[in-house]
Amino acid sequence: MPVARLLWQVAGQMLGSPACGCWIATPPLRFLGTSPRQIRADANFHSALFSETDQPRVLITGGLGQLGVGLANLLRKRFGKDKVILSDIRKPPDHIFHSRPFIYSDILDYKNLREIVVNNRITWLFHYSALLSAVGEANVSLARTVNITGLHNILDVAAEHNLRLFVPSTIGAFGPTSPRNPTPDLCVQRPRMIYGVSKVHAELMGEYYHYRYGLDFRCLRYPGFISADSQPGGGTTDYAVQIFHDALKNGKFECNLKPSTRLPMMYIDDCLRATLEVMEAPAESLSMRTYNINAMSFTPEDLAQEVLKHVPEFQITNNVDSVRQAIADSWPMNFDDSNARKDWGWKHDFDLPELVTMVLNFHGSDTRVAQAN
Ligand SMILES: NC(=O)c1ccc[n+]([C@@H]2O[C@H](COP(=O)([O-])OP(=O)(O)OC[C@H]3O[C@@H](n4cnc5c(N)ncnc54)[C@H](O)[C@@H]3O)[C@@H](O)[C@H]2O)c1
Ligand SMILES: C[C@@H](O)[C@H](N)C(=O)O
To answer: Which reaction does it catalyse (predicted)?
Structure first.
């Protein structure tokens, strides 16, 4: 009998029935093939040696984007600095490099991923690498490779090494035939952009691995995020970040969406807290593995009105980008996140007025610091 199959049978006897109530009956075929992924059974022996009460040892992929550094800061406060590794394929700025640990990790390189997970005894993986909606539509082939092939690598490494895996999805996982106001967790999902298609794929594959192989997959459908100290990576909701920079620098802003375009949005601190909370939630409290989360819903016009309260000379004009507008017009206007609120107690802290005050205060104090130096 081939060694891999023998190992698999022994591991199957040791594992028994996982928490989800489904049997890990047979390994995915690729683990028994000639690919580097054939070590699943023996990897499970190793993970069984670690204490369940250990603090998680975390890897964040795509960590130099809008969300990753903030997540690393939050997790480091919670679990300790050395327990959280930030990774990306880009060169980190000085302050991130020196705050360590930072390493190079390309999610398209499976061996590189496995080496990092093994060498650092990773137990939790936050998979943030992606091409966002507008950038993805401009480069479909790369978006398909990073968002779909890259995800397969992540799922396999997580399944082989028994990791708890967080993969963000998005409002972009819905399309023009979905109910848009509000959009529930379970409804028609027929997005027409590669970004959305790849995210529906991620949701379904993650859930499949959960039910089929017992992978502890957790996924939140994020709305658009507003952050003060990090730049977005080419999405449709980016206007809601750029508006603050331009309002303070020039007193005016040219918006690439129509004034009445309503989208679900959230302040970054709420996003990062939700992400940690769903990862810490007891498995039995999760009636689903993919949840909508939301905080507020506004249009460029609503946001401009709120900015005007702080910057009275502020002016907004429109120069609509047809690709971004088409994407936004197919997305939810309002997100129903009642299941997240019911199951694991999700509650947002920031509504529109608090969000605008927070971001403007951040930039205001930044400017004063810059002037003083
Ligand atoms: N920012 C938002 O408003 C928002 C909303 C919904 C969902 N999300 C999701 O959250 C996650 C993080 O979003 P973000 O805004 O930080 O994205 P971002 O575009 O700012 O950053 C993505 C990062 O992925 C990295 N990356 C690209 N190819 C890679 C590869 N081959 N290997 C490793 N890294 C690679 C990039 O260098 C970049 O730093 C994404 O999955 C995104 O879809 C974000
Ligand atoms: C909403 C989201 O996934 C991202 N901010 C984008 O616009 O592409």
So the answer is: L-threonine + NAD(+) = (2S)-2-amino-3-oxobutanoate + NADH + H(+)
